[in-house]
Amino acid sequence: MPFQSLGLSEPLLKAIEAQQYTKPYPIQEQAIPAIRAGKDVLGIAKTGSGKTASFVLPILEWFQDKGTPQNRSIRVLVLAPTRELAIQIGSVFQAFGEKLPRKVKTMAVYGGVSINPQMIGLQNVEVLVATPGRLLDLLSRRALSISETEILVLDEADKMLNMGFADEMKDILFLLPRKKQSILFSATLGDAVESIHQSLLNNPVKISIEEPEQDLELIKQSAYRVSSERKGPLLRYLIKTEEMQQVLVFASSKRTADNLVEKLKKNGIDAAALHSEKSQGARTETLNKFKTGRLRVLVATDLVSRGIDIQYLPYVINFDLPRSPQDYVHRIGRTGRAGATGEAISLICPEDEHHFKIIQKKMKKRVDILESDDLELKGY
Ligand code: AMP
């Protein structure tokens, strides 16, 4: 089914073409017509399914025959669990909306940055993408009103609940008008999500997208047995000798991440860390540099790496192993996307070996562990 059959207008189809989306993803095939028809939607889909465009496109279309706003009321509210996701959704609205005849002012607001510029920027905003805490903060300062919101999107609702936003979400839902179109996305349908769905959604269209099996065959996996003192030198050795130009390194803590970056830089390897103690501005800039190939090594902790949308990476290195096998697959899945091949390398200390066996068992794939004793790491 082409995008043309989804009831989208010519300018939006042009914008889709400009983004080089040739064919709708399954979630888009199902959600776009339902949202266009004004129905509530319950979508069970993960990041990577194309869920963002599945609500951004019909919402932008919805605006095309609407007049311009008269007040500080938000017409479309999108709630997202993290700043990264909020920024990403905001940029998808911008990318598709840029050249449409009816402009739609969109803004992403999130905590961790000063609130004043956000308050000023809210003038004439029609689509607000927000994390729950910052939205409540802005509401308490009367910087905006959500009492006339016509469309509500809850994105990654399960994650919002897992992150402890249940009370904030309730407060926000209470301030919204009863009559509105509601769209809820969640990776899973647990009891908590089920209860929001029951109270919020009115006879929703249910869409469930099975996650495509990660094709682990496309990922070349390897591992090195290494003592903890030699891990740092081995990392630098691998990056240098393999001439890796864009590599995502996972570390287990902020401190390790910062230390690694310092040593990499001392060795002439351009690197930066991404973790929750970095300011929002620094995180956005680092990520942009990395995505556009202007930063060679990004060292991240698991927490911030979730939800970051990096299309394709040639190399992922697990400097530290993640705790869960799912996280391992999630990490290495950043390589080998969209049919491209990638390489994932794990550094295994003696104390990690048992855990690494469990990971392999869970993923049903064996990974050979290479010895690193003979590698000459002096000078790295
Ligand atoms: P999402 O699940 O919304 O985070 O989207 C995952 C990725 O898929 C994003 O990088 C999108 O730009 C991309 N994407 C979404 N829909 C399509 C499509 N129909 N064709 C090609 N790429 C898409």
Q: How do the strands line up in the largest sheet?
A: 3-4-2-5-6-1-7
The CATH topology of the largest domain: Rossmann fold
Pick out the low-confidence regions.
Answer: none
Q: How many structural domains in the coordinates?
A: 2
Biggest β-sheet description: 7 strands, parallel
In the CATH classification, which architecture of the largest domain applies? Answer: 3-Layer(aba) Sandwich
**Can you tell me the CATH class of the largest domain?**
Alpha Beta
Mean pLDDT: 91
Which distinct ligands sit in these coordinates? adenosine monophosphate
Mass-distribution shape = elongated
CATH superfamily of the largest domain: P-loop containing nucleotide triphosphate hydrolases
Q: How many strands in all?
A: 14
Q: How many helical elements?
A: 15
Estimate the strand proportion. Answer: 15-25%
Distance between the termini: 53 Å
Q: Give Rg in angstroms.
A: 22 Å
Fraction in helix? 25-40%
Give the H and E element order. Answer: HHEHEHEHEHEHHEHEEHEHEHEHEHEHE
Query: Which class do the helix and strand fractions yield?
Result: alpha/beta
